[in-house]
Structures are given as structure tokens and as C-alpha cells.
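fwd from M.: "can u put these together and see what the complex looks like"

so here's what she sent:
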Amino acid sequence: MIRNFAVFLLLLGLGAIFLHLLDGYVPASELNQTARYYAEHTAQDLGAANIVTAIIVTYRGLDTLGEVTVLFLASTIIGMVLAQGSKRQRALQRKLPASGELLTTGSRLLVPLILLFGAYVFVNGHLTPGGGFQGGAIIASAALLVLLTDPLKRFSHKLIALVESISGLVFVGVGVLGMLLAGGFLDNRILPTGEFGALFSAGAIPLIYSFVGLKVGAEFTSMLTNLAETEKS
Amino acid sequence: MSMVLIAIATLLTIAMIGAAWVTIRAKKVATAMLAAGLVSLFASVMFLFLAAPDVAMTEAAIGSGLTTFLFFFVLGRVRGGSDD
């Protein structure tokens, strides 16, 4: 009873705070200083049509490196935790019922298309919405579909680790090249910015985002593979 | 925003709150997982209305796609095990 009352009081307090926020809300009629700088300078300085991508990859590139590192740590820890349970009972594999015809045929048709779409999303990250993280997640969902169709399917750990390491190295390498050849770490102007809106434009942004996409896709796929390989019964 | 957009956004908000309610109240775990995925799906449409297509794509791919299937994956594993 008293506990319920305390919860109610807490909710009431939270509601009052949010009501106050809502009360004082005035929609911004113009961009603030930082946003205006990005909106005005992105196109001519970096040559990227998608301002969000320019911010993520170039202006705030170090944050993206941090995010990718966090994701890498998460997938590594999942692998470490699950690897302990997967060693035993390797020989004894559960008999699984066959997947339905619809799922099998559908995944055979859809998996290449999903992979292609993922690659499209991260290659065009500097032109259209989306980019490395979204494309990587789409690629991982193709791996998920394969695993749903055939739960005993095994991906090559060596290949996943290779793709991930090379992508990470290229990402940091391009960043250091930016420090040597252009304005600073992860500066995209080590390559010519090219024609605004073309596929090969915006300097190193498509290169960096493609490798971010491959890295994110490899990380998510390794998480899913580790989960699928933990035989519990 | 025009009136139609405001109406759709209001409907989406109500649907999101409803799905979230189902998530915490559902008796079966599978229903709760699906409802949680539905919240993410509505949220991604909402982000699209708020002119943030990049965020909407992330939300749709990770929030409603991968996470929901990951939950089901783990649920299947947990049910299949005998020593959990």
C-alpha cells in the first residue's frame, strides 16, 4: 500500500516535471549556431549531400570510432561469454524439424537482395539517408534470415574476424591519413571532393562509411552466429 | 505540419502507448516481444514524420528487426535447454 503510494507520488512528480517542460516549449524558428554552421558549410567544404552523414563521419568522426569500438567490445564479450557453454556436447546435436517451404524458398530469393540493399545503403550513405550502421544492420538481418531457415548453418568465424579487423584497420588508417594529408583526424578531404551529389564524391566519406558498414555487419553477424552456436540441449 | 499529419501522428502515439501497455501486461512472453517490436516500428514511422530518416532507418533495422528476432532466438534457446 505504502509502496504503491510512493510509486504514485514518484509518477506524479515526473509528470509535473514533464508538464513544466511541455509548458515552456517554444518551437525553434531558426537553427542554432552549431546547426547553422553544419547546414551552411557541409556542401561546399565536404561535398556531402547528406548532412547527417557528414556530421557522423567527418565532423564527429571520433565519436563514430568510439561507437564502433563499443559495438566491437559488445560482440567480443558476447562471444567470450557464450564460448564457455558451446564447447561441451558439440557432438550431440538436436534434431530440428525442417523449415517450411515458404521460409526456405523466400530466404533463397531474399538473402541476395537484402545483402545488395545493405551494400547500397552504406555505399550511398553520403547521398541518401542511411549509412554504415543501417547498412550493417541490414546485412546482419540477411545472416539472421539464413540462420532462421537453417539453424545448424555455420558461418566461417575466420572470415567474419578478417572482415572486421580489416575494416577497423582501414577506418583508423584513413583517419590517420587525414591527419597527415588534410586538416585532421578523419578529415575526408584526402580524396578529391568531386562533383556534389555524384556517387564518387565527398572525399573519403563513402570509403569510411563502407568499411564502417562492413564492420558493423560483421559484428552483428558474429553476435548472431555465437548465439546460434550455443547448443544448450 | 498539416492536419492530416497531426492526426496520423496522434494515432501513432496512441498505438505506441497501447503496444507498450501490451508489452508489460501480456501473459505470454512471445506476445510481449512482438508488442515491443511494434513499439519500435511505430517509433520509426514517427521519426520519419519528424524528418529524421536516418534515425528512422536505424530504429526499423535494429530496434524492430534485429532485436525482436534476437529475443525470439534466445527464447528458443532457453526453452530448448534443460539446465536453465
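replying to her w this: The mean pLDDT of chain B is 85.
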